[in-house]
UniProtKB/TrEMBL annotation:
This is laccase. Its main location: secreted. Pfam families: Cu-oxidase, Cu-oxidase_2, Cu-oxidase_3. GO terms for cellular component: apoplast. InterPro entries: Cu-oxidase-like_N (IPR011707), Cu-oxidase_2nd (IPR001117), Cu-oxidase_C (IPR011706), Cu-oxidase_fam (IPR045087), Cupredoxin (IPR008972), CuRO_2_LCC (IPR034285). It is found in: Secreted, Extracellular space, Apoplast.
Length: 455
């Protein structure tokens, strides 16, 4: 069964009173989530989208604002979908962070089409810790399937295999000139010679780390995940799925057209991936409209040196308004390995188990694959003291120590096999917890966003 909803989502935020006598303002956004049929790659595909666009609208706030978001879900029913009616209200403060974040769906694979940028600017009276750019432009890298994305993940789950590879990547919702039937809709950014543009980057691809370049231009990286960094000049950025970055680009080249382009960074030779290249165009005012855009030379897919050089040069700007040193001392320490694991086939037909060596593929943390209850959520069980929903024995470290990144262990059945469970780790309120996440090379290298809800 596919699950869709037409949701009327009202987002409003209230400006917090400053020390001055300024009055609070209320700004309301209305977001409508529903089915949308759009043309990509020479065919029409129905997706779930927000406000009739891909990506969805950019939400803009200032540091110190308070969000009030109300969601009204409208019932929708037809021969293949079922939705529900409900109302939600959320209130949260936008404090002590500035830069680019993003909002996205959390149901199944709907994050592939339900997403958009969330931009947090400095509050009134405070400036960026770098010269203010002439213009700010959201640049969102996405991943596109020509089929229903919910079917994609459901079909994979049904046979215990990884989901089908995407058919394209996108920049601001468009694949670009290198794909069939896409050149007429390629995203274009008009620039004026001599001006500086802040590209507010979001990698909304589901699984892929991406390289990003602009032909003949350098970029200055100044922020990552809404935290200021020491400015770093580069020709190539490496951005992980779920990650955001702010980069400054100066239009300092001869009048003309230049491609911005992205490609996958995949440091393993054992993994299949979508190796296509999305593009968008930077077009200078005054340039001839018939000019063929210049294409950047992208790194090889396995260019570890370029990725390592960029990532190891990202350092916190300690003079930024909200910088804080790493908390010390630490009360609790966890080492959590993450990666692909397997279950033995437990289905009547071995053909229903199309994972590694006819097994069922699963993700795991410290060799435990999360298996939630269908009766009650963990938080409800905790607050109402309901037994049998979860256990409190999530381990502080993996059960077996091994060379986590060695490809020699990729198909080691003793290490790959995992167990199901709903295990939690309880902490004392206000304690300081250090978590080290260690990726593994088991099965395949997995690139996936990680975040703590509510933090």
């Amino acid at each position: 069964m596919r699950l869709y909803s037409s949701i009327l989502l009202h987002l409003c935020y209230f400006l917090v009173l400053a020390s001055s006598l300024a009055s609070a303002a209320v700004v309301e956004h209305t977001l409508e989530v529903k089915n949308l049929t759009i043309g990509r790659l020479c065919q029409q595909t129905t997706i779930t989208a927000v406000n009739g666009s891909l990506p969805g609208p950019t939400l803009r706030v200032k540091e110190g604002d308070t969000y009030c978001s109300s969601s009204q879900q409208i019932s929708l029913r037809n021969n293949y979908s079922l939705a529900w009616r409900n109302n939600y209200t959320y209130n949260f403060d936008i404090t002590r962070q500035e830069g680019t974040l993003w909002w996205h769906a959390h149901i199944s694979y709907l994050r592939a089409t339900v997403y958009g940028a969330l931009i947090i600017r400095p509050r009134k009276g405070r400036s960026y810790p770098f010269p203010k750019p002439d213009k700010e432009v959201p640049i969102l890298i996405g991943e596109w399937w020509s089929a229903d994305v919910v079917d994609i993940i459901n079909d994979a789950t049904a046979v215990g295999a990884p989901p089908n590879l995407s058919d394209a990547y996108t920049i601001n919702g468009q694949p670009g000139d290198l794909y069939n039937c896409s050149s007429d809709s390629t995203y274009k950014l008009k620039v004026q010679e001599g001006k500086t543009y802040m590209l507010r980057m979001v990698n909304a691809a589901l699984q892929s780390i991406m390289f990003f370049k602009v032909a003949n231009h350098t970029m200055i990286e100044v922020s990552i995940d809404a935290c200021y960094t020491n400015p770093y000049t580069t020709h190539t950025i490496t951005i992980a799925p779920g990650q955001t970055m702010d980069v400054l680009l100066k239009a300092d080249q001869p009048l003309g057209s230049y491609y911005m382009a992205a490609s996958v960074y995949q440091g393993s030779d054992f993994v299949t991936f979508d190796d296509t290249t999305p593009t968008a165009i930077i077009e200078y005012d005054g340039a001839a409209t018939t000019t063929t855009p210049i294409m950047p030379v992208l790194p090889d897919f396995s260019d570890n040196e370029t990725a390592h050089r960029f990532l190891t040069n990202l350092t916190a700007l300690t003079s930024a308004p909200f910088w804080e040193p790493v908390p010390q001392p630490v009360d609790e320490r966890l080492l959590i390995t993450i990666g692909i694991s397997i279950f033995p086939c437990d289905r009547p037909d071995i053909n229903q188990c199309q994972g590694i060596n006819n097994t069922i593929v699963a993700a795991s943390m410290n060799n435990i694959s999360f298996n939630p209850s269908t009766n009650l959520s963990i938080l409800e069980a905790y607050y109402y003291n309901v037994d049998g929903i979860y256990t409190t024995d999530f381990p502080d470290e993996p059960p077996i120590q091994f060379d986590y990144t060695s490809p020699d262990n990729q198909l080691n059945g003793a290490l790959l096999t995992t167990s199901r469970g709903a295990k939690v780790r309880k902490f004392k309120y206000n304690s300081t917890v250090e978590i080290v996440f260690q990726n593994t090379a088991l099965g395949t290298i997995e690139n996936h966003p990680i975040h703590l809800h509510g933090y």
